[in-house]
């Protein structure tokens, strides 16, 4: 049986020479693989260039960025695209960068704001290149408002309004109902126990920095706890892992002792800096727990892997432990090893709950209404999504 | 004035931080970058001095009062001084030597060598304790004391079985069910907590910026 095949002389080296017409010998090939030269035909092997090159300013940024997009070359053996740029008034096309064959966009992050640029894209293959038509002139510019943050701005406005409304209402109506938080109800009991046992209270304000809101919330709670230890005359120990947090914590405790009418009971050694090394800090606090045997441990703030090391050591010493964090990954450890745990938002409500200041309680009320609003939106959106997928009701 | 100045600074900085989030224009971003990176570093460096002073005072008091285990305070102070001197004058590592010789023959005691050969193994030792603490915590958590603890035990049991080949031998649906527990109820509850956390962060930030929450100043008016 004889089969006939027409092909290039060297199909592995697919001859292309930058869009030039080349001559390729054509063969008949017998089924036992012997090529027979038959003729030389004129073939065109043009590498199709990228099309529709567009350049535009990257929106919502601080300028200096122009986004270049293009439709890819239909040829399948393109190895990548080279992006070229021309400044208005110049003849030179400078090479900006290279993208892979599947990427059809490029961000020029070296543009000068207000200067017009044109862009060309060169498709490259093993055999050569082919270039696109230049894009229209484009300029980069900085924006004064990031439109991508508009939903955040609206949300911020709504929540701020709700918070301020309820804070204002709390000034007039001082009998706001706030649900019980057992972890915070236990604070007084835990401090009372420490007083009765004549042992210290240990307060760890987490290992994070002052820029973490959980640390700020923890220091707010520390203020209330320190007032009570000052009133009860219970020794307080506050080790710190961050020097800035140490400085603020010292001031908070000092002010609380003064506010409680016991400035004489405050000494500089109540609050101290240990180290900012995570496990060295854990070792130091474990040592304090083992030596001093505090009757009550507060582990409130931001914690990482050391959470369980601290909580388990505290549990082993028989202390009442009240923990609180917004680190979701550490919550199971605290819930397991501590007597009471402030979960997520309870950490932020604690200061208001303990101080019972109506204005702060109003803020919690505002928070709760904001949460109800979010839940309402989720239910509404889920309902709409379900309705949209029922064929009879598909009107969205 | 002692309270008003911090409150005023917090108000201005807080508002500017929020403003910079919505405005990408270069002057705003540049100031924001400087405040977030440079200013915080400078404050951190200054407060580190206070921190070191605090450690030294804390341990001196212990030595003075002959508190329990007071000799260890000497070790802390000596370690602090020695590592500070080596770190300040001995260079970072053999490639970046300082004015202090930190190599005797083949024995090197650069700050990097000390860190890698002492701090890292000590930290790893503490971290490795976590395995034993996890075992003891799991024992406590998985006791069927009440309905919640029983549910926890059940979920953990299914998850553990689903993660090992034995689980697939019991039922081929078990790994998928374990995956579903992680991906659906677990993620849903985590997101619920996160909603509350974010609102709490927002409310706390707003209260602090507006000077309503003053606990960080020690409370009071």
**Topology pattern of chain A, helix = H, strand = E:** EEEEEEEEEEHHEHEHEHEHEHEHH
Overall mean pLDDT of chain B: 91
Strand percentage of chain B lies at under 5%
Largest interface: A-B, 87 and 62 residues
Mean pLDDT of chain A: 87
Rg measurement of chain A, Å:
35 Å
How many separate helices of chain B? Answer: 7
Q: Which strand-content bin applies to the residues of chain A?
A: 15-25%
Question: Outline of this structure?
Answer:
Chain A is of the alpha/beta class and 396 residues long.
Written overview of the protein:
The complex is a heterodimer of chains A (396) and B (221). With 396 residues, chain A is an alpha/beta fold. Chain A contains nine helices and 16 strands. A six-stranded parallel beta sheet of chain A has the order 13-12-11-14-15-16, with helices on both faces. A four-stranded antiparallel beta sheet of chain A has the order 7-6-9-10, with no helix packed on it. Chain B is extended, with a radius of gyration of 27 Å. In chain B, strand 1 (103-104) and strand 2 form a beta hairpin. A two-stranded antiparallel ribbon of chain B has the order 1-2. Chain B is an all-alpha fold. Chains A and B meet through helix 1, helix 3, helix 4, strand 13 and helix 5 of A and helix 1, helix 2, helix 4 and helix 7 of B.
């Amino acid at each position: 049986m004889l089969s006939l095949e027409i092909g290039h002389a060297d199909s592995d080296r697919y001859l292309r020479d930058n869009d030039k017409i080349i001559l390729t010998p054509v063969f008949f090939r017998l089924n036992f693989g012997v090529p027979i030269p038959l003729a030389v035909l004129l073939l065109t092997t043009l590498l199709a260039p990228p099309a529709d090159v567009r350049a535009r300013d990257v929106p919502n940024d601080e300028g200096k960025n122009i986004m270049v997009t293009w439709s890819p070359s239909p040829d399948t053996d393109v190895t990548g695209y080279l992006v070229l740029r021309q400044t208005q008034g110049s003849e030179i096309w400078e090479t900006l960068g290279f993208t892979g064959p599947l990427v059809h966009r490029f961000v020029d992050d070296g543009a000068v704001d207000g200067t017009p640029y044109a862009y060309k894209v060169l498709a490259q293959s093993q055999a050569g290149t082919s270039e696109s038509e230049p894009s229209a002139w484009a300029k980069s510019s900085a924006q004064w408002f990031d439109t991508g943050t508009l939903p955040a701005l609206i949300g911020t406005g709504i929540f701020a309004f709700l918070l301020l409304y309820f804070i204002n209402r709390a000034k007039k109506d001082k009998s706001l109902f706030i649900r019980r938080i057992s972890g915070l109800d236990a604070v007084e009991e835990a401090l009372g126990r420490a007083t009765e046992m004549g042992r210290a209270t240990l307060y760890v304000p987490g290992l994070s920095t002052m820029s973490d809101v959980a640390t700020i919330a923890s220091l707010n709670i520390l203020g209330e706890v320190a007032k009570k230890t000052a009133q009860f005359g219970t020794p307080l120990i506050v080790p710190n892992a961050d020097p800035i947090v140490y400085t603020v914590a010292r001031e908070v405790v000092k002010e609380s002792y003064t506010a409680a009418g016991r400035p004489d009971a405050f000494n500089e050694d109540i609050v101290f800096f240990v180290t900012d090394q995570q496990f060295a800090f854990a070792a130091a606090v474990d040592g304090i727990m083992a030596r001093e045997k505090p009757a009550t441990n507060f582990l409130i703030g931001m914690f990482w892997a050391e959470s369980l090391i601290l909580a388990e050591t505290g549990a082993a010493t028989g202390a009442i432990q009240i923990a609180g964090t917004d680190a979701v990954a550490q919550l199971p450890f605290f819930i397991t090893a501590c007597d009471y745990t402030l979960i997520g938002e309870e950490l932020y409500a604690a200061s208001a709950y303990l101080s019972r200041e109506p204005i702060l309680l109003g803020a919690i009320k505002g928070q709760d209404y904001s949460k109800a609003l979010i839940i309402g939106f989720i239910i509404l959106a889920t309902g709409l999504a379900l309705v949209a997928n029922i064929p009879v009701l598909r009107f969205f | 004035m002692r309270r008003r100045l911090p409150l005023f600074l917090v108000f201005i900085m807080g508002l500017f931080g929020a403003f910079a989030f919505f405005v990408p224009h270069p002057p705003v971003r540049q100031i924001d970058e400087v405040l977030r990176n440079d200013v915080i570093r400078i404050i951190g460096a200054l407060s580190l001095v206070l921190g070191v002073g605090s450690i030294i005072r804390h341990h001196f008091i212990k030595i003075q009062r002959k508190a329990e285990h007071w000799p260890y305070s000497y070790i802390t102070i000596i370690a602090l001084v020695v590592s500070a001197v080596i770190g300040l004058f001995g260079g970072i590592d053999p490639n970046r030597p300082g004015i202090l010789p930190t190599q005797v023959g083949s024995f090197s005691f650069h700050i990097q060598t000390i860190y890698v050969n002492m701090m890292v193994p000590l930290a790893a030792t503490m971290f490795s304790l976590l395995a034993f603490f996890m075992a003891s915590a799991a024992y406590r958590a998985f006791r069927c004391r009440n309905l919640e603890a029983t549910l926890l035990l059940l979920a953990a049991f299914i998850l553990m079985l689903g993660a090992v080949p034995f689980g697939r031998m019991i039922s081929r649906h078990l790994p998928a069910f374990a995956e579903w527990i992680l991906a659906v109820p677990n993620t849903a509850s985590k997101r619920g907590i996160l909603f509350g956390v974010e609102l709490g962060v927002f409310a706390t930030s707003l209260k602090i910026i507006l000077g309503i929450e003053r606990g960080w100043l020690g409370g009071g008016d």
